[in-house]
Amino acid sequence: MQLSNPAPPSEKPLLSVHHLSTDFVNPKGEPAHALEDVSFEVYPGQTLGLVGESGCGKTTALMSIMRLLPASGRIIQGEIILNGVDLLSLSEQEIRQYRWKEISMVFQGAMNALNPVIPVGDQIREAILLHDKMNNSQANQRVVELLEMVGIAQSRKDQYPHQYSGGMRQRAMIAMALACLPDILFADEPTTALDVMIQAQVLELLKRIQDELGLAIVLVTHDLGVIAEVSDAAVVMYGGKVAEYGSIDAIFNFPQHPYTQRLLEAFPDLNRPAENLACIPGEPPRLNDLPPGCRFEPRCHLRIEGGIHSICALQSPELVEIPTSINEKTNEKKIPIRHLAACHRLNIAGCE
Fold first, then answer.
1. Is 4 left (phi over 0), alpha (psi -120 to 50) or beta?
2. By CB neighbour count within 10 A (0-12 exposed, 13-18 middle, 19+ buried), where does 320 fall?
3. Most exposed of 12, 176, 268, 294 (fewest Cβ within 10 Å)?
4. CATH 3.40.50.300 fits 15-102+182-347, yes or no
5. Max Cα separation, the chain?
């Protein structure tokens, strides 16, 4: 099921992910079903947030699209259409022509992502020379421009990663991801391990770069505050599946999936300082031992009663569209966004 309406003729999606399923092979047991039937679309200039607890499949979705899964990873089904080309149909040599030039990624953990024994500027230059037809002089000039774009002085390009602060290393990783001016930037937990002030600077930097270059951003995070700050739409994931999708207005003001509701209730709200924060009991399911029904059912405060014989325990819910009367159809960028959620109660009387 596609997660958004067809865009107007002048506004086609850059990236369309349809029914993507990814497993991790376990020679000694059942495979881990890291993704199942995941679909979403990314439009020019849009910021799409992927949100959920650790282990819900957010990073696996990005690595599957980039075709950078570890050896144990297997894409079982799906389509990944980038500018009209199915990336899953390409050979390893062919996919390299798309990485960094059309779709790029800021990997999680900038503290460890840079090579400690190579100057930062040389690492960025290497990415440029590998993917763009430039000579050394042109590549060096591009490095200077990229570092200045992310707020790093030219004089720091010959320094090593250990001479950079955490925030500078994160900005250097962003500069490297922008080396070939891609259409889409994946940012995997870009504010992890940074203090609050530096987090704000990194988010502001991403927003400014997006405005300057017109690129689309897919942002992975478990922080609802980050999603609310920078995203136009969000995909809420749980147990490797899409629990809810919608505009930021719909997700924050009209959450329909019990998991989304609990996530929001567990998030501090300055407008309601006296209210107790909610908690979600238990743990996310093990991906090699998934429940037969709704993956959130064992932890759900709104599960339909009936024990092991209830529909929640026996049958996985399908994504259904929320009535437009409670859904803001477009965001400020005029991208039509449907509001969908996967909950059996929506087929009965709606999640209250």
1. beta
2. middle
3. 268
4. yes
5. 70
